[in-house]
Amino acid sequence: MGLHGKTLSLLSVSLFSVTIFLGSFTFVAIAADYTTLVFKGCADQKFQDPSEVYLQNLKNLMSTLVSQSSQKTFSSTTTGQDPNAITGLYQCRGDLTTSQCYSCVSKIPEISDKLCGKAVAARVQLSGCYLRYEIVGFKQVPETELLYKVCGSSQASGTDFESRRDTAFGMAEDGVKSGSGLFYTGDYQSVYVLGQCEGDLATSDCGDCAKSAFQTAKDDCGDSISGQVYLHKCYISYSYYPNGVPAISSPSGTRQRTQKTVAIAVGGVAALGFIVVCLMFLKSVLKKRRTKHEGWVITPSYILLIS
């Protein structure tokens, strides 16, 4: 291969590397929004499983759920036979695509193994999805059992916050019952609210669960301008922006970060376009040099032939 061929090959490899880097950077920037660990719950009881039948069933369960997450945002299944059967499910946030859902759920088996080990029941909650499992017959907690909550440290000032918050909460309570996938997101006068129920919950039960979650937020978070409440069968979050709701699609800032990511990607594409132009110019120069060089080789032969 000549210098021209080697040069283009090396430049092609460099261009390919730049493209892969930009693609990876975009993915990482977006993925960080919905794969952050929020909390985990692990049963104290461990598998008494010398033959490792339970562990194999758990492995099969995880594999099945991860596979299903590439097709839909909620699913449940059971693996194994009594008395070794294990049941489980996953739920992705209602504004995620199936591709994002898969990316989120596929991270949980490893996290669960590290944090909960051989627990007979566990739940791992990421910001964009959760997965839980238990041995069949494991005692269930009530649908509205509080699992986790966090309240923002900043307090709202002024007298309008409470009425705005309560109105936004009321809209969300109705919204989760009528929304697609028992999911709602919206805002009212600078109070942004998100709510979602587990996919197999009845509509009326979903409304009751969301109502309990919002009441917990009122009682425990008070005038905090943000909060998240996770019950067994539903969760809610809210944020108050006194200066107006920014362009986001979730409390974790998915759209806002996505816009930043797109800006970075556009900048990267512009830079990539500049590189392509430079490569085309270099290719043109090399081509001219090669043509000139080839002409120099042919011409003496022609002269020698005439002689």
Automatic annotation (TrEMBL):
It is found in: Cell junction, Plasmodesma; Cell membrane. The gene is LOC111305340. PROSITE patterns: GNK2. Signal peptide: none annotated. Residues 35-138, 143-243 form the Gnk2-homologous domain. This is Cysteine-rich repeat secretory protein 56-like isoform X2. Its main location: other. Pfam families: Stress-antifung (PF01657). It comes from Durio zibethinus (Durian). The chain crosses the membrane at residues 262-282. Belongs to the cysteine-rich repeat secretory protein family. Plasmodesmata-located proteins (PDLD) subfamily. Keywords: Cell junction, Cell membrane, Disulfide bond, Host-virus interaction, Membrane, Repeat, Signal, Transmembrane, Transmembrane helix, Transport. One of its GO terms (biological process) is transport of virus in multicellular host. It is a single-pass type I membrane protein. One of its GO terms (cellular component) is plasma membrane.
